[in-house]
Amino acid sequence: MAARGPPGARGMGNRFAQFKLVLLGESAVGKSSIVLRFVKDQFDSYRESTIGAAFLTQTISLDETTTVKFEIWDTAGQERYKSLAPMYYRNANCAVVVYDITQASSLDKAKAWVKELQRQANENIIIALAGNKLDLVTDEPDKRAITTEEAESYANEAGLLFFETSAKTAENVAELFTAIAKRLPLDQSPRLGGRGERVTLAPESANTEAGGPCAC
Amino acid sequence: MDMDTDTDSAPPTMQTPPPPPPLPPRPPRRSPSGGSLGLASPGDALGNLLQLQVAPATTAVSSIDISTLSFPDGSRGTFSRTASRTTTRAASATASGYATPTHDTLGALGPLSARVNLADGSDSMSLMSFAPTLRPPGDLASLVAGELNRKSPAWMLLRSQSATVQPFETSVERGPSTTSALAGFESEFDDIPDRSAVTADEDRLALWKAKLKHYMILSSAGKPIYSRHGDLGLVNSYMGIVQTIISFYEGAQNPLLGFTAGNARFVIATEGPLYLVAISRLGESDAQLRSQLDALYMQILSTLTLPTLQNIFVHRPSTDLRKPLEGTESLLSSLADSFTRGSPSALLGALECLRLRKSQRHSINNAFLKLRSDRLLYGLIVAGGKLVSVIRPRKHSLHPSDLQLIFNMLFASGGIKAGGGENWIPLCLPAFNNRGYLYMYVSFFGDESSPGSPGSARNKPAAPREAAEQPHPPSSPLSSDEGQAEQAEEDEIAIILISTDKESFFELKEMRDSVAHQLAKNGSLAIIKEAVRSGRPSVAAIAPGVQISHFLYKSRANVQFCMASLDQPAFGGGSGSIASSSSKMVARRRLMSLYHELHASMHAKHSHLKVLHCVGDAAASLAWITPVFEFYCVAGPNISRALVTQGANKIVQWARREEERLFIIGGGVF
Lengths: 216, 670
Fold this sequence. Notes:
Chain A has 216 residues and is of the alpha/beta class. Chain A is 30% helix and 23% strand. Chain A: InterPro entries: P-loop_NTPase, Small_GTP-bd, Small_GTPase.
């Protein structure tokens, strides 16, 4: 019950839905920057690497009557965190897989993530592909390593939403999340992605990798 | 504790002190009146001081000069208005402590002796001796150069003997560039520019060599892993040389621990497949450098765990460890930089706590304990880099070196703070268990600071926060639903919840929300904020009239320390100071270097020192170690030993009286 939108605060006919979103992608492609732009409308060019994962929330209004709240897992891109990724995407309703349009290898990594999501994650998961750092190629087109056409045709093939974004200039960042929200099944139970589902996160943790004693 | 295994002991960097004062009696624990340093009675001290001023002023100071300078007695307030920064601090210190309200006889030398009797013995500290200085004229010229030229040379001469000369004041006046040990320290943290057309490799190498402190980590196969300064391309060949030298000794079963080249000390630590090297021209002891290297190694273990690290090299000895460590360079660098700046916490191997009343800390602990999640292993509340509360299982305590890694991650490096969200971080706490990961929930308190804000329906602690959130008006498509109160860095309050269960994020998040709510409701949050804002106490507030400028006090049993406020220009503090940030940094390092020297002398192998009193050009200092505490303090260069020891006694008594406020004793146990 608690996860519903505030009852009574809005008139009848208003919809409130809550979804779990995970960001994946190679390190240093700008996952955290996209989230920071989306959640706080800020940008920091000297951002340090994410350690572990960060959890943030952001609410957007799709129209007069529809509010969507994202619970966002911003994961670290380094290889050593890879084994933890399933924990974050396991119950995700949507995922943003990010690559850097100036780094050819980052799209390969993104494709690998898409594959893993399609195989392992929630079967209805909405996946968006985001080619970040668009600002770098507006002045110097030579820097681009992955053409829009190439990425777009891959996205179509794999059934992904596709945007080229710039966390720095905010270009297409809000659009990306809005497009995801519009694809999500808003008419289903508003409890989707809510607290009821979280409970399934925890119980199967009988053996953790931690070497320490039990949590007492 | 010290890991010094090197054969050539650190050279004694202190001036050899005069015969040490008598051994202090070991004070019984919890006796606030116990622990008095062997100290001449105040009467004796006064007698000595009075002898000092037998000689009348022999410099050609006219009486007019004297009166305009308001010398010698009392009216130092006059100076504070006319003189520049070097005297303002002295003046205010004077005013706060022992200035007499009645200054009737300016310019007369006579009242001095009368003044002595004004209050208790500590008042005699404001006495000045009139013996002329022996400073050569050239030096004098530099003293009065620039902004200081409003003071007459005669004043400078006289003042150099004054008891109100602050530590390092003379060296500050001469400017940082002339104090040889710290020459170039202001650019220590500047990046070496990338290779480009304008910067030749020789220039970059020269910049690299000019750094006073280096840390290098490489694999035993010679693969570079980390260097504090310079990209690995630049320093690769040096890494090769280092590897060759170390391997030569390793091969001979006679590991190389350290050596000196010029004024640089090299200390080498071999940790399994890793070589760690510290190179310092800042005068630290081998043991101190070794503990710094140990902290860097712990940071690596914290990222990888020991079995992972070993496996990597068992299977492929030539592995490039940079890839597995990717993203943690900033953590290594922020550790390295805190050592280079000089960290009391690292020096003493202890933590600093936020000073709170016992009952206040108790109520925080209780709220924390009561709302504890079943999956919690350790819970911490940290404010402004100081520990506020700890809860832990009965059979485990937290090791300071682990906490230092956490503090470094949270406060020194920007990665976590900048995100603005809640964090879930797998990490290994090597002193707790170097073989496995724990999972750490971290969040900085934000919106709880305004409990009355809309959307904070806090009457049901277990209720999820979103239940009360107001919908955002459709007119603003993007808006954050978390509080974004801008907080100054030192204001930041973090809650850290550590679990062995990697799936427990949401449980710990729920616990955090209820703890935050409870602390806001019972006023603890406001108390914590107030305590952070009021900062560290000044010496004058702790023991009025004491002539000590700064101190560190470590409680050995609690492995915690406290220190006086650094808020004065001589120590790189003071908001009103006109000094640039780089000269503040130098001032801070100068103080920390002195503490490092004291610490090294006290902890030198076989030294068995209990009390050490040092007098130098720039400052007098005292170290005092008992089984209960370690105490280090700094005073102006002309403060007598008797006065320093007397002040030390007062501060130690204060610290022992305030023990339960200054330190967390045991913490909340479940």
